[in-house]
DNA sequence: ACAAAAGTGTTAAGACTACACCCATGA
DNA sequence: TCATGGGTGTAGTCTTAACACTTTTGT
């Protein structure tokens, strides 16, 4: 069987790109950075930012470069990880393109900078971007869906949620991230206990932040731990908040 | 911005390959399928099986084809998932090669069939293959290490361990998989309870299997569920059995 | 004083650990 | 009958869900 089958063509015209799914939490929704395409194909359509991998750079390196180009990121805390690769023939009308998708999580970032291929970069609510009629270019709808799923499950057993918070942050800031990404309300008391008792998740700064209303909240920094065990479960939501405390008393 | 910056070279000579990390549990160790390389570079060295992606096939498709070529796999239950991509310049002396690594899990497979590029395919204990002096070719040591980590953590929250068991199997067969891959002993009673009570993990066949010694064990099929929640924790090992505290009643 | 958010306390339900102990089979 | 692994029962501990309640601020 080593010589009879038609031998694979060892090299054919193929391009390698990296595409970035950059998430941030703005207001009360998860947002993804998109670019309006400045050239064909899909001219005028929306797509994930990305670009060609250069001959002399690694994949992570290319992703980091693109991230910098798109967001103007400076040294801020920011999570970047490889998501997976997509390479169906026909996913790009120009030819065979393999893309390595990366997932980036960051605090509400400054107004995005238009990248090389982009006429315009903008934040879109993920809920809208995923709708079929939004019409993301290429197979970017699938990539985005995979990224959302990855982000959701990573919140359960890791501490990456802190990547969405600019330091220092409060426990409520962090809870807000979970609530927005999971789309459920969490019990503030139990959430606090869980995250403050997970060693290395939060490091108190000793400072407090006073907001318009309510008691000032303690401020924290990320504590350096990567994982949470046991995980924080998504199932434990609290459906009807607003009923508030004091429904019955002794 | 579309014409001033030094434009990335949109296409340069790149090859795209898929590499497979095929795991099975044999005897009391996790094994990986390796091939002895039949040509340069690394002629005579050991490497993960893999091959070039063809112009007209998708990545998953290529992985499945390679898997079939290497193992002679027929319809058996078998898990295949993309692991991640590796593309550092210089990872292959022949030029720029991006490889998409896949993780495959299967029951103790038949004697492997030599693939196209392989002089010989063989099962190697993962513990040995990971040692630096084993000298896996290319960056296959890193890929293998990543695969082991992925497999270990997937056992925690999914039911993929069943992919290692030929059906029908016993609870002990399944526990053996966990013990070998995690490298710890698990309490048989508690393990049984956990897996039998996780809905959809195991489906009783009604049959039993009698072995040389001991009570016959009930036989099960995989039940179709993908995940386990809450997860089965690795921490819960049983280091020194027989220490005996006698707290339980008599 | 009141509203609102931060933060603490408490209880009951559920899951897990560490075992003791019983069951079914071959030798 | 004994050895061996299969399988059940259970007490104590740990974790969580639910929610009452106290604290601290701005208005």
TrEMBL record, chains A, B:
Q: Does the keyword Hydrolase apply?
A: yes
Please tell me whether the keyword Hydrolase is annotated for this protein. Answer: yes
Tell me which UniProt keywords the record has, alphabetically: Hydrolase
Domain (Nudix hydrolase) spans 13-158
Q: Which domain of life is it from?
A: Bacteria
What PANTHER family does the record tag this protein with? ADP-RIBOSE PYROPHOSPHATASE, SLR1690 PROTEIN
Protein name, UniProt field = NUDIX domain-containing protein
